[in-house]
Amino acid sequence: MPSTIKVLHQQAQQALNQGLYQQAHQHLLLILQQDKYFADAYFLLAIIASVHHNLAKAIELIKQANALAPNNLEYLSQLAKHHALDNNHVEALYFAEIAAKLIAKSTVQSSLTLDTLGVTYSQIGLHEKAVQLFKKSVAINDKNPTYFFNLGASLKFIGDFDGARAAYEKTILMAPNYYKAHSALTGLGGISKECNHISQLEQLFKQTKHADDRLHIGHALAREYESLAEFDKAFHYLQAAKKFKLEKLKYSIDEDKSLFESLARHFKNSKASSFQGFNTKEAIFVVGMPRSGTTLVERIISQHSDVTSAGELQHFGLLVKKMTKSTSNRVIDAETVAATKAINFKELGKAYIDSTRAITGKTAKFVDKMPLNVLYVGFILQALPKAKIICLDRNPLDTIVSNFRQLFSVNQSYYNYAYDLQTTTEFYLLFKQLAELWLALFPENFYLINYEKLVNDPIKEAQQLIEFCDLSWQEDCINIHQNLAPVATASALQVRSPINNKSVGNWKKYDAYLDGVKKILTTNLET
């Protein structure tokens, strides 16, 4: 390697590590002017593209690096990870398996590469494989808090709560300001007057300046105070954290109202029998408001021997967005709905089924449990006319309070409504109207199941549910606590227990703060 290229390479790496991306970019272009076959220049350019959220460019550049330097484990693992981040799970799994086989043969292993590959498997939903890689990563390097945090997340998803707790505690021990680890740790429960983190969390809450950090600590405090039955303090921290976040957003419930109205207009006179989509009976969708029992229903169905759980997939919505070529900044909005007129829905259906094949295809049916796929019901049935869609209907106050209490992904505009009780209530009413429309339009494909009836009479309700899915009844379906499949949702703890009605009426803990909610519900549900 010419000395000038070596120096430029070192300078590019240093600039990249310091976040000086423009400077790093200039060094890398100078390298390629001298040697267009220098693989790591393409790879480092890919990392710059990734930092700036240009996944397509990053993937293209990593592929170039990999072509010039085949079997480079760092390149392969990053290529797999970026495909996963781009929701191309099939390609992600392909490159991940190549990398995993090479790692197994390698005598020298990198903690970073192992962690990267673990993140890939976790994104795909293969959390058992992720755990094994994360364990190897922390065994090599036990000084990186992110490696332990990633291990903790996958351990939680597979039901190893003690292991997850230890991993999160290790993360916090190394990095007390690792805010996500605090909210993750308190989410595992086990809080008592003798064992809690309230004093530490309150100190952190005072220190937080960034809205997302405050959300994590505020939700952690709310969970701990709730565990101690101090609901006023729990609500205080919830409201303070969410209000601070909401002030940073340019959100109005009018955006969601426009979306729901456009969906109603678009499908007002539709009939599922007229849809000519992709011919398969594989897909079962479980939808509804988040925190309404969707995971419980998914566990019942996926406990059946003919069903695979595919987890919460964003694939369908992203494919709709891609095929409409809509340029708006939301995945689904009125503009995107209007642009669906140009979609070939048979191609959409096939593309969706193909996109699930990293996990599905080994059983007759699979379940996609993305709750807000309720927005896509009409499009799903255009693309997959034989799909079955189960929608949860839960007590409105429990649904609204549970959504307000939940820490959703801070980067997804889907959940902006949940930063305020009033907008959460208004969103619930929009959802309710849409669910009733889907039921009226598509009664053969759309099934509304009541959460309270399900938990109070699980055998009867589960039998009807399984029949709707065109499956034969199996007694194991109600034994959800025996379902060993990973659960990557906020319900990971609850669904490891037998079906119960302990969550019914949880809203009463916050009754003192619900006068406005009740007024809106009373006015709208009576009209």
TrEMBL record:
TPR repeats lie at residues 39-72, 111-144, 145-178. InterPro entries: P-loop_NTPase, TPR-like_helical_dom_sf, TPR_rpt, TPST-like. It holds the Pfam family TPR_8. Keywords: TPR repeat, Transferase. GO terms for molecular function: protein-tyrosine sulfotransferase activity. The keyword Secreted does not apply. SMART domains: TPR. The keyword Isomerase does not apply. This is Sulfotransferase. It comes from Colwellia psychrerythraea (Vibrio psychroerythus).
